[in-house]
Amino acid sequence: SQTTSHPTFMVVKNLEDFEQKLAAANAEGKSVMVDLYANWCVACKEFEKYTFPSENVQEALQNTVWMQMDLTDNTPERQAVFDKFDVLGLPTILFFDNEGNELKRARVTGFMKADAFAAHVNSSVNSGASR
Question: Most buried among 3, 20, 89, 96, using CB within 10 Å?
């Protein structure tokens, strides 16, 4: 049912993989949301369980490709992601417009409930993503 699941995340393995998938999404005129996730991150699991399945959230992100990068293990690839995007901790959710630019004001760090997250996406991602 709509309320118990969310769109499947496109799995991103590393920065090179991300750049390719971002370009492909942009070529389709879509924006991108990247969920930086770790299996030890409690708030990441809360997003997964409470926020992403919400119809409001899915509606707000209907023209957005959902990507997820598993940063569970402390690897050079993980450190490269933290360095490139200046990530301080998890969860961090990044948004990119349909031209591949990060919408820095839209970045989410820490858990947000579904309605607040959907409102945030609508005001900071969708308002700027149209042009």
Answer: 96
